[in-house]
Structures are given as C-alpha cells and as structure tokens.
Amino acid sequence: MTTESRAWLLLLLAGLCEIAWAIGLKSTAGFTRPVPSVLTVAAMIVSFWLLAQALRTLPVGTGYAVWTGIGAVGTAILGIVLLGEPRTTARLVSIALIVAGIVGLKLAGDSTR
To answer: pTM for the complete prediction?
Structure first.
C-alpha cells in the first residue's frame, strides 16, 4: 500500500470515528451519562488522531473537508435511519451534494500531484 493510499484509508477511518462520536453525543445527554460520554470522547480522540496522521500526507484543505464530509453525510444518514430524523427530498439532495463535493475534492487532489 502506498503512503497516499494509507493516508486515504486513515482519513476514511477518521471519518467513521467522527460519525461515531457525533451520534454518540446524543447518547451522552449533555455529558451527564458517564459510559456514553467516555466512549464518545474516546471516539473523538481516535478520530482526531487518525485525521492528524492522514494530514501528514494529504493536503490539509482536502483532508479536512473530506473528513467533515464523511462525518456530515454519515451522521445525517444515521440520524434518518436510527433516530427517525426527517427524510425529506431537500435533505437527501443536500447529502448527495456533500458526497459530490467529497468526490470532487478527491479527484482534484489527485490531479494536482
């Protein structure tokens, strides 16, 4: 695996951890519940650490935007699926636009190297 491929994998894992802590925030009840709070903070730490490792190789603008995009899309989808949040056309189109932006950043990052 190349260094850049490894960085993209770390970034994907960081994004998945971001989804975990974003969804976990709901379970913490404002950090008043100890176990969900500890798990959420642990996911935050792992997410930031993985992001930092990925950014050793990837451009910061691309890496950060992709990380937040993965987190936003994943959290929005899980909010719809698990938490019963609204599944409106506008939300789904907005999620698709975020995905398009992530793909665009990935492709633009590859073309500049």
So the answer is: 0.88
